Protein backbone atom coordinates (compact mmCIF):
# COMPACT_ATOMS: atom_id res chain seq x y z
CA UNK A 1 0.00 0.00 0.00
CA UNK A 2 1.38 3.44 -0.95
CA UNK A 3 0.25 6.61 0.81
CA UNK A 4 1.65 10.12 0.94
CA UNK A 5 2.43 11.46 4.39
CA UNK A 6 -0.47 13.91 4.29
CA UNK A 7 -3.14 11.43 3.24
CA UNK A 8 -3.16 8.61 5.76
CA UNK A 9 -6.74 7.28 5.77
CA UNK A 10 -8.46 8.50 8.92
CA UNK A 11 -9.74 4.98 9.52
CA UNK A 12 -6.20 3.62 9.94
CA UNK A 13 -4.41 3.30 13.29
CA UNK A 14 -0.80 2.61 14.21
CA UNK A 15 0.29 -0.87 15.19
CA UNK A 16 1.53 -0.49 18.77
CA UNK A 17 5.11 -1.62 18.06
CA UNK A 18 5.48 0.72 15.08
CA UNK A 19 4.07 3.68 16.97
CA UNK A 20 6.47 3.12 19.87
CA UNK A 21 9.50 2.82 17.59
CA UNK A 22 8.58 5.94 15.61
CA UNK A 23 8.20 8.04 18.78
CA UNK A 24 11.94 7.74 19.46
CA UNK A 25 13.01 8.80 15.96
CA UNK A 26 13.12 12.57 15.53
CA UNK A 27 13.48 12.26 11.76
CA UNK A 28 10.05 10.60 11.53
CA UNK A 29 8.33 13.56 13.13
CA UNK A 30 5.82 14.90 10.60
CA UNK A 31 7.09 18.41 11.28
CA UNK A 32 10.63 17.36 10.17
CA UNK A 33 9.30 15.80 6.98
CA UNK A 34 7.22 18.90 6.34
CA UNK A 35 10.30 21.10 6.86
CA UNK A 36 12.28 19.09 4.29
CA UNK A 37 9.44 19.44 1.81
CA UNK A 38 8.75 23.12 2.46
CA UNK A 39 12.32 24.38 2.80
CA UNK A 40 14.11 22.30 0.17
CA UNK A 41 11.22 21.58 -2.17
CA UNK A 42 11.49 17.79 -2.00
CA UNK A 43 8.57 15.59 -2.93
CA UNK A 44 7.82 13.38 0.07
CA UNK A 45 6.36 9.88 -0.18
CA UNK A 46 5.74 7.61 2.77
CA UNK A 47 5.45 3.90 2.06
CA UNK A 48 3.29 1.98 4.49
CA UNK A 49 1.99 -1.52 5.01
CA UNK A 50 -1.20 -2.43 6.86
CA UNK A 51 -2.89 -5.54 8.20
CA UNK A 52 -6.46 -6.66 7.52
CA UNK A 53 -7.72 -4.52 10.39
CA UNK A 54 -6.24 -1.36 8.82
CA UNK A 55 -3.50 -1.06 11.43
CA UNK A 56 -0.30 0.44 9.99
CA UNK A 57 2.34 -2.29 10.34
CA UNK A 58 5.24 -0.70 8.49
CA UNK A 59 6.55 2.71 7.45
CA UNK A 60 9.35 4.04 5.28
CA UNK A 61 9.38 7.75 4.32
CA UNK A 62 11.27 8.81 1.19
CA UNK A 63 12.18 12.13 -0.43
CA UNK A 64 12.71 12.65 -4.14
CA UNK A 65 15.92 14.67 -4.59
CA UNK A 66 16.56 16.05 -8.07
CA UNK A 67 20.14 17.28 -8.22
CA UNK A 68 22.37 18.42 -11.08
CA UNK A 69 25.27 17.16 -8.93
CA UNK A 70 24.12 13.62 -8.08
CA UNK A 71 21.13 13.00 -10.36
CA UNK A 72 17.58 12.04 -9.48
CA UNK A 73 17.51 10.06 -6.22
CA UNK A 74 15.09 8.67 -3.66
CA UNK A 75 16.51 9.12 -0.16
CA UNK A 76 15.31 8.05 3.27
CA UNK A 77 15.92 10.74 4.40
CA UNK A 78 17.93 13.83 3.37
CA UNK A 79 19.88 15.46 6.23
CA UNK A 80 18.81 12.59 8.49
CA UNK A 81 21.56 10.24 9.66
CA UNK A 82 19.52 7.20 10.69
CA UNK A 83 16.08 6.32 9.33
CA UNK A 84 15.22 2.73 10.34
CA UNK A 85 12.84 0.70 8.24
CA UNK A 86 9.96 0.24 10.69
CA UNK A 87 8.00 -3.01 10.36
CA UNK A 88 6.08 -5.24 12.74
CA UNK A 89 7.79 -8.33 11.28
CA UNK A 90 9.95 -9.47 8.36
CA UNK A 91 6.96 -10.02 6.06
CA UNK A 92 6.01 -6.37 6.29
CA UNK A 93 9.68 -5.35 6.00
CA UNK A 94 9.96 -7.27 2.71
CA UNK A 95 6.77 -5.61 1.52
CA UNK A 96 8.17 -2.13 2.23
CA UNK A 97 11.42 -2.96 0.48
CA UNK A 98 9.61 -4.24 -2.62
CA UNK A 99 7.54 -1.04 -2.68
CA UNK A 100 10.71 1.06 -2.49
CA UNK A 101 12.39 -0.87 -5.31
CA UNK A 102 9.29 -0.68 -7.49
CA UNK A 103 8.97 3.06 -6.87
CA UNK A 104 12.63 3.53 -7.83
CA UNK A 105 12.04 1.76 -11.12
CA UNK A 106 8.90 3.76 -11.90
CA UNK A 107 10.62 7.04 -11.08
CA UNK A 108 13.73 5.95 -13.05
CA UNK A 109 16.00 7.30 -10.36
CA UNK A 110 19.75 7.09 -10.50
CA UNK A 111 19.81 5.72 -6.97
CA UNK A 112 17.63 4.66 -4.06
CA UNK A 113 19.41 5.39 -0.76
CA UNK A 114 18.16 3.81 2.47
CA UNK A 115 19.86 5.12 5.61
CA UNK A 116 18.32 2.35 7.66
CA UNK A 117 21.27 0.99 9.58
CA UNK A 118 21.50 -2.67 10.52
CA UNK A 119 18.59 -4.63 9.07
CA UNK A 120 18.71 -8.33 8.11
CA UNK A 121 16.05 -7.93 5.40
CA UNK A 122 18.11 -5.27 3.63
CA UNK A 123 21.40 -7.08 4.16
CA UNK A 124 20.02 -10.26 2.57
CA UNK A 125 18.53 -8.50 -0.46
CA UNK A 126 20.72 -9.30 -3.48
CA UNK A 127 19.53 -6.21 -5.37
CA UNK A 128 20.89 -3.76 -2.79
CA UNK A 129 24.45 -2.52 -2.48
CA UNK A 130 25.63 -2.06 1.10
CA UNK A 131 28.04 0.72 2.09
CA UNK A 132 29.60 0.49 5.54
CA UNK A 133 31.15 3.94 5.84
CA UNK A 134 29.60 5.07 9.14
CA UNK A 135 28.92 4.11 12.71
CA UNK A 136 26.63 5.60 15.33
CA UNK A 137 27.51 6.10 18.99
CA UNK A 138 24.89 5.42 21.65
CA UNK A 139 25.36 6.51 25.26
CA UNK A 140 23.10 5.00 27.90
CA UNK A 141 21.81 7.60 30.35
CA UNK A 142 20.50 7.21 33.89
CA UNK A 143 18.59 9.19 36.48
CA UNK A 144 21.85 10.27 38.11
CA UNK A 145 24.40 12.07 35.87
CA UNK A 146 27.17 10.68 38.09
CA UNK A 147 26.45 7.21 36.74
CA UNK A 148 27.44 8.52 33.31
CA UNK A 149 30.36 10.53 34.69
CA UNK A 150 31.91 7.37 36.10
CA UNK A 151 32.00 5.87 32.59
CA UNK A 152 33.78 8.84 31.01
CA UNK A 153 37.43 8.32 30.22
CA UNK A 154 39.78 10.34 32.41
CA UNK A 155 40.90 12.74 29.62
CA UNK A 156 37.26 13.70 29.03
CA UNK A 157 36.68 14.34 32.72
CA UNK A 158 39.80 16.49 32.85
CA UNK A 159 38.68 18.57 29.86
CA UNK A 160 35.26 19.19 31.40
CA UNK A 161 36.84 20.30 34.69
CA UNK A 162 39.29 22.47 32.76
CA UNK A 163 36.47 24.31 30.96
CA UNK A 164 34.68 24.87 34.26
CA UNK A 165 37.85 26.12 35.94
CA UNK A 166 38.50 28.56 33.06
CA UNK A 167 35.00 29.98 33.55
CA UNK A 168 33.38 28.74 30.34
CA UNK A 169 29.65 29.35 30.82
CA UNK A 170 26.87 27.26 29.24
CA UNK A 171 23.41 28.62 28.58
CA UNK A 172 20.37 27.63 26.53
CA UNK A 173 19.56 29.66 23.44
CA UNK A 174 16.58 31.95 23.99
CA UNK A 175 16.11 33.92 20.79
CA UNK A 176 16.59 34.20 17.04
CA UNK A 177 19.66 36.33 17.81
CA UNK A 178 21.19 33.33 19.58
CA UNK A 179 20.52 31.24 16.48
CA UNK A 180 22.35 33.81 14.37
CA UNK A 181 25.32 33.68 16.76
CA UNK A 182 25.43 29.91 16.43
CA UNK A 183 25.17 30.10 12.63
CA UNK A 184 28.24 32.33 12.39
CA UNK A 185 30.22 29.61 14.15
CA UNK A 186 28.55 26.91 12.05
CA UNK A 187 29.59 28.48 8.74
CA UNK A 188 33.20 28.87 9.85
CA UNK A 189 33.37 25.33 11.22
CA UNK A 190 31.96 23.83 8.02
CA UNK A 191 34.37 25.98 6.03
CA UNK A 192 37.28 24.63 8.07
CA UNK A 193 36.25 21.10 7.13
CA UNK A 194 35.71 22.04 3.48
CA UNK A 195 31.95 21.53 3.49
CA UNK A 196 29.00 23.77 2.56
CA UNK A 197 26.76 25.01 5.36
CA UNK A 198 22.98 25.23 5.59
CA UNK A 199 21.69 28.81 5.36
CA UNK A 200 20.67 30.76 8.45
CA UNK A 201 17.02 30.47 7.38
CA UNK A 202 17.17 26.70 7.90
CA UNK A 203 18.23 27.04 11.54
CA UNK A 204 15.67 29.76 12.16
CA UNK A 205 13.00 27.40 10.77
CA UNK A 206 14.24 24.62 13.04
CA UNK A 207 14.01 26.97 16.00
CA UNK A 208 10.53 28.18 15.16
CA UNK A 209 9.13 24.69 14.49
CA UNK A 210 10.73 22.59 17.23
CA UNK A 211 12.03 24.71 20.12
CA UNK A 212 8.64 25.73 21.48
CA UNK A 213 7.52 22.11 21.86
CA UNK A 214 10.77 20.97 23.46
CA UNK A 215 12.01 18.90 20.53
CA UNK A 216 15.08 21.10 19.98
CA UNK A 217 17.60 22.31 22.51
CA UNK A 218 20.50 24.60 21.62
CA UNK A 219 23.33 25.17 24.08
CA UNK A 220 25.86 27.96 23.73
CA UNK A 221 29.29 28.14 25.37
CA UNK A 222 30.48 31.63 26.31
CA UNK A 223 33.69 33.05 27.66
CA UNK A 224 33.97 36.67 28.74
CA UNK A 225 30.71 37.51 26.95
CA UNK A 226 31.88 35.93 23.68
CA UNK A 227 30.03 32.99 22.14
CA UNK A 228 32.75 30.44 21.43
CA UNK A 229 30.86 27.20 20.66
CA UNK A 230 27.37 25.76 20.32
CA UNK A 231 25.53 22.48 19.94
CA UNK A 232 22.02 21.61 18.78
CA UNK A 233 20.19 18.55 20.07
CA UNK A 234 16.94 16.97 18.92
CA UNK A 235 14.70 15.10 21.35
CA UNK A 236 12.11 12.42 20.59
CA UNK A 237 10.55 9.93 23.00
CA UNK A 238 13.28 8.81 25.38
CA UNK A 239 16.17 9.77 23.09
CA UNK A 240 18.37 12.86 22.75
CA UNK A 241 20.24 13.17 19.46
CA UNK A 242 23.30 15.34 18.85
CA UNK A 243 22.50 17.08 15.58
CA UNK A 244 24.89 19.99 14.93
CA UNK A 245 27.93 21.47 16.57
CA UNK A 246 30.27 24.37 15.87
CA UNK A 247 33.06 26.21 17.64
CA UNK A 248 35.56 29.03 17.29
CA UNK A 249 38.92 27.31 16.86
CA UNK A 250 40.67 30.18 18.65
CA UNK A 251 39.04 29.04 21.91
CA UNK A 252 39.36 25.26 21.60
CA UNK A 253 42.05 25.31 24.30
CA UNK A 254 39.22 26.13 26.74
CA UNK A 255 37.53 22.78 25.93
CA UNK A 256 34.04 24.27 25.34
CA UNK A 257 32.79 21.29 23.34
CA UNK A 258 33.44 18.91 26.22
CA UNK A 259 31.51 21.10 28.62
CA UNK A 260 28.66 21.58 26.13
CA UNK A 261 28.22 17.86 25.65
CA UNK A 262 28.45 17.14 29.37
CA UNK A 263 25.83 19.82 30.06
CA UNK A 264 23.48 18.17 27.55
CA UNK A 265 24.08 14.74 29.09
CA UNK A 266 23.43 16.04 32.61
CA UNK A 267 20.23 17.75 31.48
CA UNK A 268 19.12 14.59 29.68
CA UNK A 269 19.58 12.49 32.80
CA UNK A 270 17.68 14.98 34.93
CA UNK A 271 14.82 15.11 32.40
CA UNK A 272 14.44 11.32 32.32
CA UNK A 273 15.89 10.55 28.88
CA UNK A 274 17.31 7.06 28.49
CA UNK A 275 19.65 7.39 25.51
CA UNK A 276 22.01 9.97 24.01
CA UNK A 277 22.70 9.39 20.31
CA UNK A 278 26.02 11.08 19.60
CA UNK A 279 25.35 10.99 15.87
CA UNK A 280 26.85 9.55 12.74
CA UNK A 281 30.63 9.30 12.41
CA UNK A 282 32.62 8.34 9.34
CA UNK A 283 34.87 5.37 10.07
CA UNK A 284 37.68 7.21 8.29
CA UNK A 285 37.47 10.09 10.79
CA UNK A 286 39.61 8.42 13.43
CA UNK A 287 39.91 11.55 15.57
CA UNK A 288 36.15 11.98 15.97
CA UNK A 289 35.73 8.24 16.45
CA UNK A 290 38.14 8.35 19.40
CA UNK A 291 36.49 11.48 20.84
CA UNK A 292 33.11 9.74 21.02
CA UNK A 293 34.58 6.47 22.26
CA UNK A 294 36.03 8.29 25.26
CA UNK A 295 32.54 9.30 26.36
CA UNK A 296 31.73 5.67 27.11
CA UNK A 297 29.34 5.36 24.17
CA UNK A 298 28.69 2.04 22.43
CA UNK A 299 29.66 1.83 18.76
CA UNK A 300 27.01 0.49 16.38
CA UNK A 301 27.42 -0.16 12.66
CA UNK A 302 25.34 2.17 10.47
CA UNK A 303 25.29 0.73 6.95
CA UNK A 304 23.42 2.48 4.14
CA UNK A 305 21.84 0.56 1.25
CA UNK A 306 21.62 1.55 -2.42
CA UNK A 307 19.85 0.48 -5.60
CA UNK A 308 20.80 0.08 -8.43
CA UNK A 309 24.02 2.04 -7.79
CA UNK A 310 25.63 4.17 -5.11
CA UNK A 311 25.24 7.92 -5.57
CA UNK A 312 25.22 10.99 -3.37
CA UNK A 313 27.55 12.58 -0.85
CA UNK A 314 26.72 10.04 1.88
CA UNK A 315 28.03 7.28 -0.40
CA UNK A 316 31.39 9.02 -0.84
CA UNK A 317 34.15 7.91 1.51
CA UNK A 318 36.03 10.70 3.25
CA UNK A 319 39.27 9.00 2.21
CA UNK A 320 38.34 9.07 -1.50
CA UNK A 321 39.90 11.45 -4.01
CA UNK A 322 36.45 12.87 -4.86
CA UNK A 323 35.80 13.82 -1.26
CA UNK A 324 39.26 15.30 -0.81
CA UNK A 325 38.88 17.30 -4.04
CA UNK A 326 35.49 18.68 -2.97
CA UNK A 327 36.63 19.68 0.51
CA UNK A 328 39.97 21.03 -0.71
CA UNK A 329 38.31 23.31 -3.26
CA UNK A 330 35.68 24.52 -0.81
CA UNK A 331 38.30 25.52 1.78
CA UNK A 332 39.85 27.88 -0.76
CA UNK A 333 36.69 29.91 -1.31
CA UNK A 334 36.27 33.33 0.31
CA UNK A 335 34.03 33.02 3.36
CA UNK A 336 31.33 35.32 1.94
CA UNK A 337 31.15 33.34 -1.30
CA UNK A 338 31.09 29.99 0.53
CA UNK A 339 28.25 31.23 2.73
CA UNK A 340 26.15 32.30 -0.25
CA UNK A 341 26.91 29.20 -2.33
CA UNK A 342 26.30 26.85 0.58
CA UNK A 343 22.76 28.08 1.00
CA UNK A 344 22.08 27.53 -2.68
CA UNK A 345 23.79 24.16 -3.12
CA UNK A 346 22.85 22.43 0.12
CA UNK A 347 19.52 21.06 -1.04
CA UNK A 348 21.29 19.10 -3.77
CA UNK A 349 23.48 17.30 -1.23
CA UNK A 350 20.68 15.74 0.84
TrEMBL record:
<keyword id="KW-0961">Cell wall biogenesis/degradation</keyword>
<comment type="similarity">
    <text>Belongs to the FemABX family.</text>
</comment>
<keyword id="KW-0133">Cell shape</keyword>
<dbReference type="InterPro" id="IPR003447">
    <property type="entry name" value="FEMABX"/>
</dbReference>
<dbReference type="GO" id="GO:0071555">
    <property type="term" value="P:cell wall organization"/>
</dbReference>
<keyword id="KW-0573">Peptidoglycan synthesis</keyword>
<dbReference type="Pfam" id="PF13480">
    <property type="entry name" value="Acetyltransf_6"/>
</dbReference>
<dbReference type="InterPro" id="IPR016181">
    <property type="entry name" value="Acyl_CoA_acyltransferase"/>
</dbReference>
<feature type="domain" description="BioF2-like acetyltransferase">
    <location>
        <begin position="154"/>
        <end position="293"/>
    </location>
</feature>
<dbReference type="InterPro" id="IPR038740">
    <property type="entry name" value="BioF2-like_GNAT_dom"/>
</dbReference>
<keyword id="KW-0012">Acyltransferase</keyword>
<dbReference type="InterPro" id="IPR050644">
    <property type="entry name" value="PG_Glycine_Bridge_Synth"/>
</dbReference>
<dbReference type="GO" id="GO:0008360">
    <property type="term" value="P:regulation of cell shape"/>
</dbReference>
<dbReference type="GO" id="GO:0009252">
    <property type="term" value="P:peptidoglycan biosynthetic process"/>
</dbReference>
<dbReference type="GO" id="GO:0016755">
    <property type="term" value="F:aminoacyltransferase activity"/>
</dbReference>
<protein>
    <submittedName>
        <fullName>GNAT family N-acetyltransferase</fullName>
    </submittedName>
</protein>
<keyword id="KW-0808">Transferase</keyword>
Amino acid sequence: MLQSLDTYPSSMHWHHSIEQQAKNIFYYDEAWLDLLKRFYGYSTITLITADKHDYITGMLPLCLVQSPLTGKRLVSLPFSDHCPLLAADEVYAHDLLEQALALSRRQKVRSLELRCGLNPVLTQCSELLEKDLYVSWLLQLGADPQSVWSRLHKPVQRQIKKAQKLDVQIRSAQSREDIARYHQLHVRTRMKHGMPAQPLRFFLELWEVFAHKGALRMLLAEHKNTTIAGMIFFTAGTTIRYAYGASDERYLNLAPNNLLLWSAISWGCEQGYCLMDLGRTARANTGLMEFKRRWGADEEALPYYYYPQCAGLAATAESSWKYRLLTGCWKRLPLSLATALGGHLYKYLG
